[in-house]
Write a structure and sequence with these properties.
- This protein is α/β, with parallel strands linked by helices.
- The protein is built from 9 helices and 11 strands.
- Helix 1 crosses helix 2, helix 1 packs across helix 4 and helix 5 crosses helix 9.
- The radius of gyration is 32 Å and the shape is rod-shaped.
C-alpha cells in the first residue's frame, strides 16, 4: 500500500533528480530512500525514474505521478491545517440566533468584532422569537443565542452581553410627545399600554410591571404583543404607548416619539449556549465577549 511518506520521498527525488540531494532535503540516508522509491514503483506497477550512472530522469509515468502526487500532498497538508484551525476556533461555522431587537444593539458590534478577529469562520446569524431561542440552542440547531435572561435550564450556560434602559414610545401626536425631561410612571396612569406577554418575554414584562408598581400605578394594558418592532408599529398607529428598550430609537419609525423614563428600569441581553457544545468557534465568540466586558 502506498503511503504519504513514499509520495513525499518521490516528490523530493523528482524535484532534485538526484537521490543524494533528495536524501539531504528529507534528512534521511540514501539507501532507505532508494528502497522506498523502489517499493513505490513495485506497488504502482510503473517505472517512475530512468536511472543512469550519473543521471536520473522522470519517465512519462513519473511526470504524471509527480503532478498528481503534488496535488494529493497539498490537499493532505491543507486538510491537516484546516483541522488545526477548526480545533483552534479559527475555521469552521458558527450559528447564532438572536431576538430581533438585538439587531439594533448588541449584535452589530459583537458581529463586527468577531468577524474581524476570526475572518475564516463562517458566521450564520438568524433572527429567532425569544421564546424559541433556548430550545434551539438545547437541540443543537444554534450554537448560541442572544436574548433576555433565559430561565435557568440544565445544560445551558449564560453571560451578559448588553445592558440598556427602557424608554417610552408614544405617538407623535400624544400630549407628552413635546415635553422635556424624563416621564414618570404617574404621568402614564390610565394610558393604554402595549406590552409584551408575561409568559413569552418575562424579563421585559417584569421590568415594566415593577416600574409602575414602584410608583403605585396599575398599568392599563390594552394589547399584548411579542415583538418589539410590532409594538412600536402599533404605537405609531396611536393604539397606545409602550415601554421598550432604548435601542429601538434607531428604528426611526415615523409617527413615534421616544422619551426618557424617570428612574428608568434596566434590561440585559444575555448570550447563552449549551454546556456540551464542542464547537471551538463558540469559544472564540466567548473570548470576544470577554474582551468587550
Amino acid at each position: 500500500m502506498i503511503d504519504l511518506r513514499q509520495m513525499r520521498y518521490f516528490v523530493a527525488v523528482a524535484e532534485t533528480l538526484h537521490f543524494g540531494r533528495a536524501a539531504e532535503r528529507l534528512h534521511v540516508s540514501q539507501p532507505p530512500l532508494s528502497r522506498q522509491i523502489a517499493a513505490l514503483e513495485r506497488e504502482l506497477g510503473a517505472t517512475l525514474f530512468e536511472r543512469h550512472s550519473r543521471q536520473v530522469r522522470l519517465t512519462p509515468a513519473g511526470q504524471r505521478f509527480l503532478e498528481d502526487a503534488r496535488s494529493v500532498l497539498a490537499a493532505f497538508d491543507e486538510a491537516c491545517r484546516s483541522a488545526r484551525l477548526v480545533e483552534q476556533g479559527e475555521l469552521g461555522e458558527l450559528h447564532v440566533g438572536f431576538m430581533m431587537h438585538a439587531a439594533l444593539s448588541s449584535v452589530p458590534p459583537l458581529t463586527r468584532e468577531f468577524v474581524s478577529r476570526h475572518p475564516h469562520v463562517r458566521l450564520h446569524l438568524r433572527e429567532v422569537l425569544p421564546s424559541a431561542l433556548v430550545d434551539a440552542v438545547l437541540k443543537g440547531e444554534l450554537d448560541a443565542g442572544i436574548g433576555f435572561l433565559p430561565v435557568a435550564r440544565k445544560g445551558i450556560e449564560r453571560r451578559p452581553v448588553h445592558r440598556e434602559p427602557l424608554c417610552l414610545a408614544l405617538p407623535s401626536a400624544h400630549a407628552l410627545a413635546g415635553d422635556d425631561g424624563p416621564v414618570a410612571a404617574t404621568a402614564l396612569a390610565g394610558e393604554a399600554l402595549i406590552a409584551v406577554p408575561a409568559d413569552i418575554v418575562p424579563t421585559l414584562r417584569q421590568a415594566t410591571d415593577r416600574w409602575f408598581a414602584d410608583a403605585g400605578v396599575t398599568p392599563t394594558v390594552r394589547l399584548e404583543v411579542q415583538l418589539q418592532h410590532s409594538i412600536v408599529s402599533l404605537v405609531a398607529e396611536s393604539l397606545g404607548v409602550a415601554l421598550v428598550p432604548a435601542s429601538l430609537r434607531r428604528l426611526g419609525l415615523p409617527g413615534v416619539v421616544f422619551r426618557e423614563l424617570a428612574d428608568a428600569p434596566q434590561v440585559e441581553q444575555w448570550l447563552f449556549w449549551r454546556t456540551l457544545n464542542r464547537n471551538a468557534a463558540l469559544h472564540a465568540l466567548l473570548d470576544v465577549v470577554a474582551r468587550q466586558d
